[in-house]
Protein 1
Amino acid sequence: MLPLSLLRAAQYMPMLVELKNGETYNGHLQACDGWMNICLRDVICTSRDGDKFWRMPECYIRGTNIKYLRIPDEVIELVKEEQTSNSSGGGRGRGGGFRGGRGGTRGRGGRGGLTGRPGLGSSGGGGDRGGGRGGRGGGGRGGKFPRAN
């Protein structure tokens, strides 16, 4: 679970941000970006010593200054559920699924040896995964040039 995915899921929720200089900011997350720069609303800033407080309608914090973020536990559970539902999406991620991902043998020849299927030796094809990027053994041309047997 990446910190940025947690931060994006925590949008509009209350959080505590501690900076490297010791100041803390309590507020509701309004926006964040890829560099972890964040914008908070209804902010209460506490000094490093904890003796001074400031109330601000909103504030922008640069991501490189952030030391610590405290977000509600429900956000962590929400992201975990989201990731498990996304990972069980049929196995069609990068390089997986039915159409053969990157690499693999491209139709005929192969490298010799066993291919994992009985009866096929050194002339084995690419197995049943197809080759390269073109799907079932076609290579990269989308079936324009049929595979020679």
Protein 2
Amino acid sequence: MGFAGFALNARDHHHAGIVQMSDASKIAVVKPQLVESQSARLEKVVNEHLGPKLASLHQKWLVPAFPFEADAEIINEFARLVVQPDGTAAEQFFLRKRDEGMSMAALFETLLTPAARRLGDCWYEDECDFVDVTLGVMRLRALLETCVRVSGAPAAPGRNALLISAPKERHFFGLEVVSAFLASSGWDTTLSLGQSAAAYARIAESQWFSVLGVTVADEAHLDGAARAIEAVRRRSANPSISVIVGGWALRGRPDLAARIGGDAMAEDGPGALLLANRFFFDQAAAA
């Protein structure tokens, strides 16, 4: 939804809201809160996919209500374990948290993603080297794949999402988390990283996608992201494709998200899933 998630490359973790871009003059970040459902249809799909801890619809907003709070001590310990020569301890730590009752969403949002950020911080602060970071991210990806394999739901017809990074972008793990989050909830995801706008457009032209997800971690890549979105919209097999944007470069900046052509902005996996489901049903209703 770096969309580590949409905006999951942020260095400080808090559960983010969702921003709708249809009226740029009224854009505001909506923080998590429990709200009454005003759409039985959307309430049903939210409850089916994310359980009772999610509120559904408030006016035009889908608001995640997960009380996610990352524990710095746990994150530091997990990040230390994933760079050890033997990855067994990291795997056991992760599985223990799962067995203690952490949901898949919580594991994504409060363990895997923050640990990836912590590895990046360690590299910037010269606390570890590139080899350590590469090894750690590889192990995080393996655990991510394990989550999807164990808890993944069969893809639902029509729920196809193309997830891309801005051209030349090099921060991918967050987008992989969002891809796994969607896949585990019945979405068929196509992940394409670091390609050109033309390459992304060819993919969108060759297959029907309900949703395009774009992450931008570096502000230097905003213009490239805008070109990619424009190219995909122009050539997409789905002329009504909806665009969800996110990434560290957009965090707290809905004006930038609107400028590059997004329909909505999500700052984490749950937010991206809620928006994807909403856009899917909006398109189905309009068909």
